[in-house]
């Protein structure tokens, strides 16, 4: 009995001598695991990301090759997968159409149609980085908005894929990319009725051909700096175009740039050319804060620009019936000369004061009619040719150097009764009529 007790006691003592992990030892183990994880996890992620990128590198190369073949035949690149000789299946096995193809990890888009600017881009679905290959370049490069390290993970050189992307459309079925910054539409009705296009990234728009860019009614074009519309009804009915960033604007053709009721012209528009019947009509919100040159040639060109103030306007040409009519807010304080050639040209410029105006030519029936605010303080030459031209200039007093030439004894040249300048008449009846009407004026026959 005593022996068994002694053996049991020794067994218990042996068990009690077994050592357990201390707290410090456990912390060391956790630290080691953390270090291994910190080192291994990025390597693992890099390996996974590199393998995902590898799945799209061959696609980029194949697309670039197909685009080069297309360029050889068409003289341009395409932004429509359907036009390429080779078909490219998307993640669902369907052949890609238009400019975008969805893969498992990337969105692959065709960008640019001009030589030196065409490229295919593969944007990671989470937006972390974008791979790109220019059609005329050898290597694929990587772009990331911030230094996230993803480009280093895939082992590719960094590049800037955020630069301008040019696109040229030559047929009505052309698909306009949302990434396009410079768009050219060549041909009749090209880019017409693209009602879903907004143009958030667009900076330059060129429309060449009748009805080109017509009815892009939802395009705001807040970043467009240059607009060139050449052709009848080109850029017609761009209902929401704001022109906030516009610097220069050229509209040539009947109804070109007409019906732009949201167009304000912003603070940067300095030059504007409108040539053609009703070109640039109904721009009721255009203020032209910094506009210095405006050319309106054609019947009703620049008609109904009722919001145009034009304090800085130094050059204004109005040639055509009703050209520049109903510019009811125009002050013209910086203008020194104004030509209004055509029936009703410059009609209803009721706010026009022309403080620095020295020469005014009104040539056509009812031209310069209702310039009721013009005082003519610095006016030296005024020509009124046509029935009711210079009619209702009720504030025009002029000065001793003002010479107003009229072509009849009535039906034209209704000035303020205190008019103190010279009136040149075509006949003696006119001299008699004008002398009785304007007591302070010097009235004489034309030499």
Kindly describe this structure.
- With 447 residues, this protein is α/β, with parallel strands linked by helices.
- Among the domains are: 51-154; 292-447.
- It has four helices and 19 strands.
- The strands form two sheets. Strands 6-7-8-9-10-11-12-13-14-15-16-17-18-19 form a 14-stranded parallel β-sheet.
- Strand 1 (100-102) and strand 2 (106-111) form a beta hairpin.
- The longest helix has 52 residues, at 23-74.
Gyration radius from CA atoms, angstroms: 37 Å
Shape estimate: elongated
From N to C, what is the helix and strand string? Answer: HHEEEEEHEEEEEEEEEEEEEHE
Mean pLDDT comes to 89
The percent of residues in helical segments reads 10-25%
Question: What can be said about the biggest beta sheet?
Answer: 14 strands, parallel
Instruction: Indicate the structural class.
Output: alpha/beta
In whole angstroms, how far apart are the ends? 158 Å
Strand order of the largest sheet: 6-7-8-9-10-11-12-13-14-15-16-17-18-19
Number of strands: 19
Strand content: 15-25%
Provide the low-confidence segments as ranges: none
Quickly count the helices: 4
